[in-house]
Amino acid sequence: MAFDPVQKILAIGTQSGSLRLFGRPGVECYCQHDSAAGVIQLQFLINEGALVSALADDTLHLWNLRQKRPAILHSLKFNKERITFCHLPFQSKWLYVGTERGNVHIVNVESFTLSGYVIMWNKAIELSSKTHPGLIVHISDNPMDEGKLLIGFESGTLVLWDLKSKKGEYRYSYDEAIHSVAWHHEGKQFVCSHSDGSLTIWNVKSPIKPAQIITPHGKLPKDGKKAEPCKPILKVEYRTCKSGDPFIIFSGGLSYDTVGRRPCLTVMHGKTTAVLEMDYPIVDFLTLCETPYPSDFQEPYAVVVLLEKDLVVVDLGQNGYPIFENPYPLDIHESPVTCCEYFADCPVDLIPALYSVGAKQKRQGYSKKEWPINGGNWGLGTQSYPEIIITGHADGSLKFWDASAITLQVLYKMKTSKVFEKSRNKEEKPNTDIVDEDPYAIQIITWCPESRMLCVAGVSAHVIVYKFSRQEVTTEAIQMLEIRLLYEINDLDSPETDQIPLGAPCQGPNSQTANSQSHPSTSSSSSDGLRDNVPCLKIRSTPLKQGAGYQAEVVIQLVWVNGEPPQQISSLAVNSSYGLLVFGNCNGIAMVDYIQKTVLLNLGTIELYGSNDPYQRQPKSPRKTRQTSGGLCDINEGSTNLDDRCKSPTSAKMSRKLSLPTELKPDLDVKDNSFSRSRSSSVTSIDKESREAITALHFCETYTRKADTCTSPCLWVGTTLGTVLVIVLNLPPGGDQRLTQPVIVSPSGTILRLKGAILRIAFLDTTGSLINPAHEPWREPNVQEEKDDKDKCRKLRPVSVSPSSSQEINETQYAVICSEKQAKVISLPSQNCIYKHNITETSFVLRADIVGLNGSICLACFCANGHIMTFSLPSLRPLLDVNYLPLTDMRIARTFCFTNNGQALYLVSPTEIQRITYSQSTCENLQEMLGELFTPVETPEAPNRGFFKGLFGGGAQSLDREELFGESAAGKASRSLAQHIPGTGGIEGVKGAASGVAGELARARIALDERGQKLSELEERTAAMLYSADTFSKHAHEMMLKCKDKKWYQF
Question: Which of 53, 323, 338, 537 has a 20 to 30 A CA-CA distance from 133?
């Protein structure tokens, strides 16, 4: 880490070579080194808008932070020595670089060239020493004398080097290895941290032995001998205050007998010692001080602690050292992200509503002060429309993020596991065998921003319906529904192709899964017989206090059937206007009226067809007759993968990595770790599951049959075999009748077919505009309404009561249906296909969404081969086809999603969300949206030396480093030692700026600067050549005068 105390900017480097720069909340920047080598050290050029990074591949880089997108100006690659430590004094252009060989080199950060001045290790240590002192772990100049450089070697030796006389002035030696060194601001003392958990305090002019030895966490024996050794103190900082005792802050140093104790940061202040426990191992820490001058009282006010998975800032100004509340989105991976959804152009009142309930969740005990890292300026930055990201996590939690700006801001957190009983020990959880761990993990999120209805499906085959409320409520008993989904028939695995005969049964490993619901597996038997009608999770029996925000309305669970666990849910939809929830898996479909808390529909997939089933289904056969055979099964796939995909979850525990919802399961080629389709292109990606799963659900008000003259509420259902079925919904009138009269559900007989599993269904009107599903506006559920108001709200719902009373519509509608392979636009009510486009033949679509872009709508698709494609609607004309990202990880497939205004996101790593845009207008505005890291700030005045110090020579001693390290005095460094590499932070760095007058002016200004710099360099070279010629002339003249009167034999 590094901190600029004037600009108030924090820089963090990672092991993967990336840089994160943080300013005030909302000002954040991400940079990546090309080499991806780990960052070992960072140094700010304080208040100059520049940063030096040292990498593990022995390169130094100079970053220009004065532009919105930081870029590298210069790089220097060391060829012969390994970099171990760097130090850049305040207001100096000379960087000290320590190496593994124990030498110190000096780099000019303006030109990024080496000086000829080198401090060799053998000259620094005592001549009597016969061993190498080890690599350099510390370099710093004396705060009161810039001409004295303190060099720390790993072995325990320190040297105070006099830069002017080029020799060691004092040498300090200690038995234990050194990890870090810190100066007292007066320059008379320094403290070292050692590998045995001790701190040694040295007086500069007393090199024989330390003035004091402290082992803060070591037990002192009674005989007064040396304290017992402790763990190494990895870093120490020594900070002074005008009006109080100094602070000594260090990490590590705990006693070896504290097994299992969490990592600690220790703060010693006067006679008090505070040990601050951290949740994760400490990577680095630094103290934030009021002044950039090392020779002044530092007045520390906070400590920034970088942990492996978090960033903590401790307030040193309050008793108890509370931490500041972190405004940065660093806890996205607090629990592994299992799914995410992206919503752009949300209602404007939604973010304030979520923020207000989220503010009530904040824990007490935070510091009352403002966040201390507050540099930089915001960009124009937020979009003109609100954006929200929802992440679902392995522990069952959900987080709502404000994504309107470039950075994320957490709005609200919730835990779905609260509605379930928590098992106290392993013996009390017999029913959660469907997953090995994380039984509450979120798989699917369905959210209606307008009505604020939220539904989540979990890995344990459970669905929870939530309503939003601003008031706290206590629920005496959670409403629960249990559903028994059966699958009685083996269906044929054959979509609409002529390549595969309809009568061929698919036997083998896939068939075992198909019949698992009705044929008990021996591995699932238990001491009390077969498990049946038992849910995977136990609902909480005690009253549940639900805070403001999302509150559980009803919990639906699929139950075990004849000893087999329920199959995970593959699709989910909710409609607030109808009061209905529907979900499906590879067994069938279930519909729930969450207003009346009743199950309306519970059918196997085949039962949806009725007598119109286009497939020839095979009746179940006894398990013993099943044998592994070719058929339609993939014989090219590795046996390990096949077993994993086809095993019953009872016989083989599922791994921590959650399996995808069914429509997202591609074939995985184990050999090259890439996704490929080894079967015929006409076969869908999940045909190996052998049963027809529900993959798409969409509530709408449209034509259900060819003969319809008006629209009516219905549900469109898509399956893995490319079939679309329509279910008619007959809803009772609003008001009290909705609470008492049943909803009548019936199949319409309409069947549409595509190639590949259905992914998305949507509807357009005759103008090509998207018809959004009906929804109710949000209203506070925990407030008793007047009856007239309630009836009025109910009557405002855009719900048709029956076909006879529905609004007459002469114009047609268009159904847009997208599958893994193709997209169709179908005219309604005639059900004629007017547009058809085969999206891919060699790959398959993973995610498809109908999104709004620049006032119109389009179909956006992400394929397994990495292509992002968009198509116009309703004509399905290709608009964009970009080979963006080859699918190399199931995480991408699980989390990739599109949203309005040409944006998308996915989880690029377990801890990072990547947002992308394919909109030209967003790209053009991106530069303005970015914040500025550098702002013009005057450097604070240097500390006053005082009259007597000035008179008698006290105070800080300055040093003319140019005179010592410049080429004229020190000469040139060896060319083979390091190689200079020009960066792209000059004129190239502005090419990404927005085009226009400002961009042209910026480019012209930098071009002039570079031209002026080159002219200046040329002038300097010319002057040097003239000086050299003049010197040569003088020497020649002197030689001529000397030899003028000599005879030939005198030479």
Answer: 53
Q: How many CA atoms lie within 13 A of 387 on its CB side?
A: 24
Per-residue pLDDT of 452-478, as tens digits, reads 999 999 999 999 999 999 888 888 888
In this predicted structure, what is the pLDDT of residue 628? 30
Supply the pLDDT for residue 785: 54
CA distance 457 to 341: 13
Q: Reduced to 3 states, what is the DSSP secondary structure of residue 676?
A: coil
* Within a domain: 353: yes
Domain residues for the domain of 699 are 694-779+811-893
* 1 within domain boundaries: no
Strand 94-99 and strand 83-87: the pairing is antiparallel
Cα–Cα distance measured from residue 325 to residue 312, given in angstroms and rounded to the nearest whole number: 8
- H helix runs in 930-996, sequence order: 947-952, 961-965, 967-970
Residue 679's alpha-carbon distances to 65, 637, 688, 704, in angstroms, are: 52, 10, 10, 35
First to last CA, the chain: 66
Q: Say what the pLDDT of residue 373 is.
A: 92
For position 241, what pLDDT does the model report?
92
Domain of residue 704, CATH code: 2.40.128.630
Q: What are the residues whose beta carbons fall under 8 Å from the beta carbon of 192, sequence distance 6 or more?
A: 152, 158, 174, 178, 180, 181, 199, 200, 202, 236
Asked whether residue 902 is domain-assigned, the answer is no
> Strand order in 588-593's β-sheet?
571-575, 580-584, 588-593, 598-604
Q: Is there a domain that residue 958 lies in?
A: no
Which domain-ending residue is among 545, 562, 579?
A: 562
Asked if residue 505 lies in contact with residue 631, where contact means CB atoms within 8 angstroms, the answer is yes
Residues of the chain with pLDDT under 70: 128, 222-224, 258-259, 330-333, 362-363, 379-384, 423-436, 487-529, 616-690, 782, 784-811, 887, 945-958, 968, 985-1014, 1016, 1045-1051
Q: Indicate the number of domains in the chain.
A: 2
Containing 136, the helix (H) or strand (E) segment is strand 136-142
Quick one: tokens of 421? Answer: 């009983």
Strands 442-448 and 145-153: unpaired
Sheet holding 453-458, edge to edge: 442-448, 453-458, 462-469, 549-558, 480-483
Instruction: Output the DSSP codes for 356-378.
Output: HHHHTTPPS---SSPPS---SB-
pLDDT of residue 377: 85
